[in-house]
């Protein structure tokens, strides 16, 4: 039994919806941010990117002032009624359809909304500070559930409900429908009350930070069934010297295929433009048999002296949705790439149900929702 609720969204006006939303600003280089802010006065980056202000409290207060300024200039509007929102993202044959709503912090605290990935306390505290000062969820936490039941019906996506339909430069089509009929809203909410658990697919830090925030009982979420998600690993890259290279080569063999295999029990790495593999013991517990944990136990701890990836600043993470060639082109002669296996959504749910967690950056899950599209202000 989980509780969702409608809310009054803060969102761009229809004529500016193609200009306001952005990717999470961490996905931009500094050069890209400067260019975007120069060329687009409506970009959400004008709000969210305030790195020139060093003191965090002042930086976050500046973000709040910029939000208020966008509202005053009528770049952003706030719906007058509590609504639910259907969001569809598509590119080619790939399509995601789900519900944007508010979810209950109480459900999270009672473990009805389950986690699968460890968080970093410093990031939790930082984001709690951000929420306290800005009073806004700029993008939803990605939530899934173990069901094939379609809670979004075709009538919820009628033309009369559609508020946005636009394409971004990366060729992704974004569509949003607003559900404001109270009977329809009650019907959708009642269907979710039959679901025992929800699962965080992406946004563990945002959810944990929302829980830390005093006098806050809701978090913004995008919910879709687990068979709609696309899941990839995060590969690991570390700096190496000659001594480290020799140690890695000594305990490994060159791969005969010279390309990474899917779902192999061996650890795989790319070094000096060559693929290697290491045979390691298979573990009985599912959590211990994940390639990310095998890597930590057999390589990162004994060779790189990394005991906890949460605290390490020396690991670079590369999302697994990139092409192999593009990933390999990023690896210099002074780096090693450790190739991780995908963790299936079913395994993620099993891990969450056992109250276990994977290391940070174990999964890269799509879709990624734009910042500044459908937002929720905190009271």
Outline the secondary-structure elements.
Blueprint (H helix, E strand, L loop, with lengths): L3 E2 L3 E4 L17 H10 L5 H4 L7 H17 L3 E3 L5 E8 L2 E11 H5 L3 E2 L6 H14 L1 E2 L3 E5 L16 E6 L5 E7 L2 H11 L5 E5 L1 H9 L5 E8 L4 E3 L1 E6 L2 H9 L2 E2 L12 E5 L2 E5 L12 H14 L11 E4 L4 H6 L5 E5 L5 H9 L10 E3 L8 E3 L2
Describe what you observe in this structure.
The chain has 379 residues and is α+β, with helices and mostly antiparallel strands. It has two domains: 173 residues, Conserved hypothetical protein from pyrococcus furiosus pfu- 392566-001, ParB domain, CATH 3.90.1530.10; 108 residues, no CATH class. Helices cover 28% and strands 26% of the residues. Strands 1, 4, 5, 6, 8, 9, 10, 11 and 12 form a nine-stranded mixed β-sheet that branches. A six-stranded antiparallel β-sheet has the order 15-17-16-19-14-18. The protein is globular. The protein starts with a strand and ends with a strand. The model has no long low-confidence stretch (mean pLDDT 94).
